[in-house]
Write a structure and sequence with these properties.
There is one protein chain. By secondary structure, this protein is α/β, with parallel strands linked by helices. The strands form three sheets. Strands 3-4-5-8-9-10-11-12 form an eight-stranded parallel beta barrel, surrounded by five helices. Strands 1-2 form a two-stranded antiparallel sheet. Strand 11, helix 8 and strand 12 form a beta-alpha-beta unit. Helix 1 packs parallel to helix 2, helix 3 packs parallel to helix 5 and helix 6 crosses helix 7.
Length: 366
């Protein structure tokens, strides 16, 4: 019986993964008021790091205070943020060899909101909210407070913020950085003509709308060690007529590929509440399939990937080099164990748990 492709090694840049299962960044909305990680993150990341996946990526971490989706979002913009994250990572790494990366982002006009369990609405300035920023003064939804259009000086500061957070990520020993240019957040807002109505060098043509993403990638790549991968998550489409789409995504991916981007993580939507899509198993995998035809860098697929056979089919069929799970991993934090059992593979497990190996699966833990 052939060994399953899902459990074969994968290289991102020079980072070696033991398998092709990636734990997606997942916002927890559980930082303190200053954006610093808490004990929740130690528990959350700790048990995910024992799952046997090939890579764990820490939730979207804001590069500036106003870049947080909620006041409970994690940030990596202050010494306190860095020190709190260091304590969490020390605990995680003491018990798991799994590589850990971080997603860096800025929420743009989708910032200043309640946590999802409180309704997720935008907070007023008199409710603890703050002024949001965006490429243009176009709110995410009708009736929301318009964002402030970023000046050229603001754009330069944003680049500096990404660089400063990337330097903090290196000091913390993160083995990978993923830039967040998806889900309607700030970098995606610059990409889409629906949210970017600028008439300067950062708006209008596709070349201009891509400019800030490419400049931030170059700036982060320049300060993060050469042997550590820098990749990106994009939304392959807005799923709104006249918005960002797959053909534009391909052009962005080609430009990033030429700059040495290590991987592209292909998600979708999130920019406009008018989006129309049919959500079902593997519904975003076609974005990854197209990218595999167009770029040399590694491609990660997402989108309701829940079954081991489904994940194996995606990587075995060449639609993507890896799969990333988010909600599925929260629901089943031992998903990689169960996938290995189903597919006849072996997986890493902590020595404290080895005796849990079922009698019928003598080789599961190697």
């Amino acid at each position: 019986m052939a060994s399953p492709k899902l459990f074969s090694p994968l290289t991102l840049g020079e980072l070696e993964l033991t398998n092709r299962i990636v734990i997606s960044p997942m916002c927890q909305y559980s930082a303190d008021a200053n954006g610093s990680m808490t004990d929740w993150h130690k528990i959350h990341l700790g048990h995910l790091a024992l799952s046997g996946a090939g890579l764990l990526i820490v939730e979207a971490s804001a590069v500036a205070p106003e870049g947080r989706i909620t006041s409970g979002d994690v940030g990596l913009y202050s010494d306190d943020n860095e020190q709190a994250m260091a304590r969490v990572l020390e605990s995680v790494r003491a018990h798991s060899p799994m590589p850990v990366g971080i997603q860096l982002g800025h929420a743009g006009r989708k910032a200043s909101c309640q946590a999802p369990w409180d309704g997720g609405a935008q907070l007023g300035l008199d409710e603890g909210g703050w002024q949001t920023v965006a490429p243009s003064t176009v709110p995410y939804q009708d009736g929301q407070r318009p964002p402030q259009a970023m000046s050229l000086g603001d754009i330069e500061q944003l680049k500096a913020d990404f660089v400063a957070s990337a330097k903090r990520a290196e000091r913390l020993g993160f083995e990978l950085i993923e830039l967040h240019a998806a889900h309607g957040y700030l970098l995606h807002e610059f990409l889409s003509p629906l949210s970017n109505q600028r008439d300067d060098e950062y708006g209008g043509s596709l070349e201009n709308r891509m400019r800030i993403v490419l400049e931030i990638f170059d700036a982060v790549r320049a300060v993060f060690p050469d042997d550590k991968p820098v990749g990106i998550r994009i939304s392959g489409s807005d799923w709104v007529e006249g918005g960002w789409d797959l053909e534009q995504s391909v052009e962005l991916a080609k430009a990033l590929d030429a700059r040495g981007c290590s991987f592209i993580d292909c998600s979708g939507g999130g920019l406009d509440p008018r989006q129309t899509l049919n959500v079902g198993p593997s519904y975003q995998v076609p974005f990854a399939r197209r990218m595999k035809q167009e770029v040399a860098m590694q491609v990660i697929a997402v989108g309701l990937i829940t079954e081991p056979e489904q994940a194996e089919g995606i990587v075995f069929g060449g639609e993507a080099d890896a799969v990333a799970l988010a909600r599925g991993m929260l629901y089943d934090p031992r998903w990689p164990w169960h996938a290995a059992a189903k597919l006849g593979a072996t997986v890493n497990a902590p020595k404290q748990y080895v005796r849990s190996q079922p009698h019928t699966l003598k080789q599961l833990f190697g």
